[in-house]
């Protein structure tokens, strides 16, 4: 177990590899995914902070013959995006039934009346990426290395977003 902690992708040094950029969730990350919260009609979740290439998962139950409206507000530079999938986590690579079409906009809204009733998963994904590049101060001795980060650096501490959820008849 200690070996996995010290040598795996979550190890404290793993993200400092030259040119490291997290491309997508691994199969292990998908397996370990957990629901952050349950969405209820008329609710607004606004205390969330999301980091680079993170996904936050929520669930809701849709009754028969109901429409759903989901609004995502956040910083355009974070590249937030919404995904919906029935019955399982809505990872972008997992062929979600619905996704927002403007990942770089400040507000995204999914309104639909064609969802089947049942348990639905909502994913909020932060598409912003931070890249780390090593800088060596003494190249002849390969000493004095530090890392320069590029990208939207606010995501390192997490950027805020809000998620509004309503069930009703919107058509």
Task: Name a few traits of the molecule.
five-stranded mixed beta sheet, 171 residues, mainly beta, 11 strands
Secondary structure elements and their pairing?
Layout: H1 2-7, H2 27-32, E1 35-38, E2 43-50, E3 55-62, E4 67-74, E5 80-86, E6 98-99, E7 107-112, E8 118-126, E9 131-138, E10 143-150, E11 159-168
Parallel strand pairs: 1-3
Antiparallel strand pairs: 2-11, 3-8, 4-7, 4-11, 5-6, 5-8, 9-10
Structure description:
With 171 residues, the protein is mainly beta. The protein has two helices and eleven strands. The radius of gyration is 19 Å and the shape is elongated.
User: So how many helices?
Assistant: 2
Order of helices and strands: HHEEEEEEEEEEE
Q: From the helix content, strand content and strand pairing, which structural class follows?
A: mainly beta
> pLDDT under 50 segments (min length 5)?
4-23
Estimated radius of gyration: 19 Å
What is the average per-residue confidence, as pLDDT, rounded to a whole number?
Answer: 79
């Amino acid at each position: 177990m200690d070996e996995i902690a010290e040598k795996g992708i979550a190890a404290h040094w793993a993200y400092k590899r030259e040119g490291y950029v997290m491309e997508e969730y691994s199969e292990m990350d998908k397996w370990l995914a957990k629901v952050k919260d349950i969405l209820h009609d008329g609710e607004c979740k606004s205390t969330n902070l999301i980091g680079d290439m993170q996904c936050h998962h929520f669930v809701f139950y849709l009754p028969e013959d109901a429409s759903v409206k989901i609004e995502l507000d956040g910083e355009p530079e974070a590249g937030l995006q919404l995904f919906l999938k029935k019955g399982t986590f809505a990872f972008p690579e997992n062929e979600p039934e619905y996704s927002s079409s403007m990942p770089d906009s400040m507000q995204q809204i999914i309104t639909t009346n064609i969802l089947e009733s049942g348990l639905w998963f909502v994913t909020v994904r932060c598409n912003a990426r931070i890249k780390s590049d090593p800088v060596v101060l003494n190249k002849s001795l390969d000493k004095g290395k530090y890392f320069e980060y590029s990208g939207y650096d606010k995501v390192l501490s997490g950027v805020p977003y809000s998620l509004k959820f309503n069930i009703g008849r919107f058509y």
